[in-house]
Amino acid sequence: MDRDGLTPRQCFFLLFLFLLGNLVTAAGAKGTQSGWLLFPVLGVLSMPVNWLFHQAADCHSAGMGFTGALGRFAGGIFTGVYVVLSVLMAGDAMRLFADFIVINDLNDAGAWGNTAMLTLVVLLMLVCSLRGLGKAAWAVMPCAVALLLLSVAVTVGKADLHRLLPLFAEGEGVLARSFISSFAALTAASFFPIAVFGSGGTVEKRRAIYAAGISACLLMAVLSLRDAAVLGWPAVGRFRFPMFAAAATTRHSQILISSVFVLVQPFRAALCLRYAQTCLKNRMPRLGRWYPPLLLGGAILSGSLSWSSEQVRWRTAGEAAVSVMLLLGPAAAVVAHRLKRRQT
After folding, report:
1. DSSP character string of 297-331
2. Helix-strand-coil percent breakdown of the chain, rounded to 5?
3. Considering the entire predicted model, what is its pTM?
4. Nearest-10 Cα torsion for 44, 224, 302, 100
5. 35-86: per-residue pLDDT in tens?
6. Could you give the CA distance from residue 27 to residue 21 in angstroms, rounded to a whole number?
7. I want to staple 184 with a disulfide (CB 3.0 to 4.6 A). Which of 252, 264, 303, 319 is the partner?
């Protein structure tokens, strides 16, 4: 195996941690009373979507996926758009990290101080090998899952199943918007880590990707069910971080959620930026040493502008557009690649 390659188990851990990076915020299904019912649906949808992403990654490496399949001009446009999207998603992850620490008063470093700490960790993840990042995920993922399940165990006494009724009390419109938001943040965004995993995927690697998508969604369903049963509606939708609020109902248990978030959030930002870094290195390899700080600077700038603020009216339309774009590029690459194979 190539020195920088990943084993199927490391792919599972990395994708799982990437999906958990959107864990605590109320955006999407986690901020609704019946949102826990949407996560199994997202888990089922992740299988065909991740199959598409895996097929696109098998065509070419992350940096040459679109240009190799669609040609230099069209492929270059797609690559540029996806690089921008990856930086914006990384910036959103970094802004969410700072907001979580500041709003919940977990330290006195402030938003910029916490962003600086996360920046240093993400920088180390960008300069290390992909195999090294996979080994780190192997150590972090079991610990994160154990802490999350422990938080459920210690707060189950505060849960009341009557708070889950009536189902779909939020209304169809709220649930539809929540589904779009979660699909964009979880299922569609999985393109970036899967593309980073690279070409040459085996059946075992593909199964690991499927397992990560399904198991992460099932875990989020359990956690969202706990939040709704503890907080009830509409309280679960009024908290910016409902999972932290639900855990705080039991003394000291909120530290479990905080620890998990601090562990997993750097992986989400780093995997998005590693995609952009790979694409840029394939285009201009001579500037390789400058890409990590430049990409981090762009992510911090986009996060500071709050481009994905929940108060922005076009948020749902933007998330729907991002989802379509993230599906369109891999689909076009796979179709073009297969047409070329038939012609030859």
Report:
1. HHHHHHHHTTTT-TT-TTHHHHHHHHHHHHHHHHH
2. 80, 0, 20
3. 0.90
4. -150
5. 899 999 999 999 999 999 988 877 666 666 677 777 788 888 888 899 999 9
6. 12
7. 319
